[in-house]
Amino acid sequence: MTRNRPTHEELKHLAFQKEGVEALYEELEEEYHLLAEMIQARHAAGKTQAEVAELMGIKTSAVGRLESALFYKKHSPTLTTLKKYAHALGYRLELNLVPDHNKSNTAS
């Protein structure tokens, strides 16, 4: 007998029913997007964390921390580190400021 598992969207809908979850999700959206881009780029480059670490001149565990730093908020990688990561994959780091039409113009 197979069990039907809820989809990501169904789970997200359920989670958003709890107070504060949707706001927290939106707050972390940029970090999750960057993390997903980093991991997708590494996979597209066909490189393992160990290979990236060797190219960056750091330990494999440091690449693991880098790829999870945004998720766990334990570390804040520098722009230099993100550039080295991108270069190890044959990419370049590009940062952009874009208008956020969903937010007011005041900083919180």
List key phrases describing it.
108 residues; mainly alpha; 434 Repressor (Amino-terminal Domain); 5 helices; globular
Description of the structure:
By secondary structure, the protein is mostly helical. The chain has a domain at 29-96: lambda repressor-like DNA-binding domains (434 Repressor (Amino-terminal Domain)), CATH 1.10.260.40. The protein contains five helices and no strands. It has helices at residues 8-16, 21-44, 49-56, 60-72, 79-88. Helix 2 (21-44) packs antiparallel against helix 4 (60-72) and helix 3 (49-56) crosses helix 4. The chain is globular and about 45 Å long.
Topology:
Layout: H1 8-16, H2 21-44, H3 49-56, H4 60-72, H5 79-88
Helix pairs in contact: 2-4, 3-4
Concise synopsis of the structure shown:
The chain is about 60% helix and about 0% strand.
